[in-house]
Amino acid sequence: MALQAANGRAVVWATLFLALLLQIMPLPEVVSAARPDWLFIALAYWTMALPHRYSILTAWLMGLLLDILLGATMGVRALALALVIYVVALHFQRLRNFPVWQQAILLAVLSGVYHLVIFWIQFVTSKSLFDPIILLPVVSNLIIWSWAYWLLRRIRRDFKVR
């Protein structure tokens, strides 16, 4: 029983680290701006599925690791991810009962909040200018969510993650 629980945790952490790798993977300049927020998508799924195990602290740690890997200001993405995952954790029971297309819309809105929080912190610290292109990942998250939801749910069921 303990081995099975440990196996489930390893599967979740493996998906989170795969999402982290997809997040930092170099892409051509043309599609780089519309890169989905793989880490946010994976964290949102696991927070909805297992909120008692993967929630705000996990989001903060993964965001901090993402800041380190991107060479960004320390804690910016950690704060933004923790904030939006807090909202997901707060409403996980409602989100679970919505159809996947409604979940996609709500997570796209939260993804927009995530990007606007990152922009706001960067604006305060370094006076960067707003470019609407920073919201392109919101559209790609909206499109990717149903596929990612299906894939992560299948992984969860195949590996009996509880």
Automatic annotation (TrEMBL):
Alphabetized UniProt keyword annotations: Cell inner membrane, Cell membrane, Cell shape, Membrane, Transmembrane, Transmembrane helix
Subcellular location: Cell inner membrane; Cell membrane
Any one GO CC term of the record: plasma membrane
Record InterPro entries: Cell_shape_determining_MreD, MreD_proteobac
Membrane-protein topology: Multi-pass membrane protein
Listed GO biological process terms: regulation of cell shape
Major location (coarse): membrane
Transmembrane segments: 57-88, 100-121, 133-152
Similarity remark: Belongs to the MreD family.
Function description: Involved in formation of the rod shape of the cell. May also contribute to regulation of formation of penicillin-binding proteins.
Protein's name in the database: Rod shape-determining protein MreD
